[in-house]
């Protein structure tokens, strides 16, 4: 199965995130829709309510760069960065014995355009990735379900 996969990408242990997966989206979503979703996640994670209010009506003043090269969407400004791309071989496997789920996928291949040939060459085959996480852990951390259920 293919999917748009949005992840936190960090450089250096000081910026490591505990859960890289931000969102899993329908691969038929348009690039423009995914860019808006990625921007929303960025704003919610890096800006307070006052800044979100300000930037919601002034999107050109947002202090990040959106890179849409090579078929991917990156937001660079801080570390970690947000990355969205369509991955293949996407699968979630549940292991009830260990109470975990494994999310696995294959990254997109990288191609280089050859103008004179009007063709492209494969320069890097997409690698398989996987992440193990506790079963039942939501992708969003907005609601503290344990606290909510206690009330």
Task: List its salient traits.
globular, 7-stranded antiparallel sheet, two-stranded antiparallel sheet, single chain, 151 residues, 39% strand, alpha+beta, 9 strands
Summarize the structure in words.
With 151 residues, the protein is an alpha+beta fold. It has one domain (3-150). Helix content is 20%, strand content 39%. The chain is built from 3 helices and 9 strands; from the N terminus they run E-E-H-H-E-E-E-E-E-E-E-H. Strands 1, 2, 3, 4, 5, 6 and 9 form a 7-stranded antiparallel beta sheet that branches. A two-stranded antiparallel sheet has the order 7-8. The longest helix has 16 residues, at 31-46. The mean pLDDT is 85.
Number of domains: 1
Strand content: 35-45%
Shape by Cα distribution = globular
User: Low-confidence parts lasting 5 or more residues at pLDDT below 50?
Assistant: none
Q: How many H/I helical runs?
A: 3
């Amino acid at each position: 199965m293919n999917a748009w996969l949005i992840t936190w990408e960090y450089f250096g242990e000081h910026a490591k995130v505990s859960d890289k997966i931000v969102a899993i989206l329908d691969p038929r979503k348009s690039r423009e829709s995914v860019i808006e979703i990625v921007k929303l996640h960025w704003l919610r994670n890096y800006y307070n309510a006052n800044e979100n209010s300000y930037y919601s009506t002034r999107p050109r003043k947002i202090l990040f760069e959106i890179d849409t090269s090579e078929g991917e969407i990156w937001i660079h400004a801080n570390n970690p960065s947000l990355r969205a791309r369509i991955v293949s071989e996407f699968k979630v496997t549940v292991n009830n014995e260990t109470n975990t789920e494994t999310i696995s996928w294959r990254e997109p291949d990288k191609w280089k355009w050859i103008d004179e040939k009007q063709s492209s060459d494969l320069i890097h085959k997409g690698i398989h990735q996987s992440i193990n996480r506790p079963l039942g852990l939501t992708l969003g951390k907005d609601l503290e379900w344990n606290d909510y259920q206690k009330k």
